[in-house]
């Protein structure tokens, strides 16, 4: 039985990484350690299918080598109830300092589909990521902004391309969770978290759906190595990124 001190939102995923996050500001969670309920396991296929409906990202620059498709939306998030309310459509904007590749550009992507927001596994991952974070209790009762990115990198047969063309970077969020949704016919894609001075802290290659990294994005950097497809078919890598920020508090996003 789960320890009674563990919130239900964490117990239903099955891994309590709060101590790791407090001590080292990141936690790598292999999917094999998850203990999802039958309901959550059953909701995975429906959620994952939405990655087939993402919009082409015209800013990726993959040319004949690769494409990136994605959706992006901001939500109001109430931790006490788990309620996610869509905010008005907004461009994804980063400064040139934070993103040397496409910083300064207003990038518009399709919004996250309403059905995904109601998916039980999606909602459980949002709650799990937030409740795992080392946040003071005074801020847990406030309404946060939750940023959702759905991203697919598809590499053409026999090609290799960057997963993150901007290189080693921070996206400026106080906290972020990265969850592998799918990985088909690719090599590479090793994830690394770094100190701000770009000294590596930990490395892992996400291989199984729901392999996870949760970290204090604003206080460290991260990177993923290029991925390659076999000579006879396309390969792809799908990820879900869940980020949190609280304007007007110590947990604002650095743009």
UniProtKB/TrEMBL annotation:
GO terms for molecular function: dioxygenase activity. InterPro entries: 2OG-Fe_dioxygenase. Keywords: Dioxygenase, Oxidoreductase. This is 2OG-Fe dioxygenase family protein. It comes from Streptomyces nondiastaticus.
